[in-house]
Amino acid sequence: MSSWLKVFGAVGMAALLSACVSQTVKTTSVPTIENASQQVAEDLLLDVAIAIFDPGIDDYDGEDQQIYPEVRKAEARYMPNLLSEAMQNSGAWGAVRVVPSESQITDLLVTGKILHSDGEQLKLKILAQDSRGYVWLDREYSDNASRYAYEVTTRTKHDPFQAVYNTIANDLLQRQEELRELDRKNIRLVTELVFARSFSEEAFEGYLAENRKGKLLVMRLPATDDPMLERVRVIRERDHLFVDTMQEYYGTFNGEMIGPYQEWRKLSYEEVVALQELKAESTRRLIAGGVAVLAGIAAAGSSENTSRAAGNVAIMGGGYLIKSGLEHRNEAQIHVEALEELGLSLEAEITPQVIELEDRSVMLSGSVADQYDQWRELLAEIYRAEIGSLEVITDSESTDEKL
Amino acid sequence: MGEFPQGEAPGQDGSEMDPGGAGEPGMEEVAGTSGDGSESGGTDATGEGEGEPGFEVGVDTGTGLPGLLDEPTFEEILGAMEDAMGEAEGAPGSPGSQAGTGGFPGDGTEPGTGPAGQEGTESGAGGTSQGSGGPLTPAEQVAILDAQLEQGTDVFDAIILEEQAAQREAARNRTPPPTPAPEEGSSSGGTGGYGGGMIEDGIADAGGYSTGGGMGGASAGGGEIPQNTAKYPPPADIPTGNDDDVVARQLREAAMREPDPAIREKLWDEYRKYKGISP
Question: Could you tell me which residues come within 8 angstroms of residue A254 by beta carbon, excluding any fewer than 6 positions away?
Answer without folding.
Answer: A77, A78, A81, B242
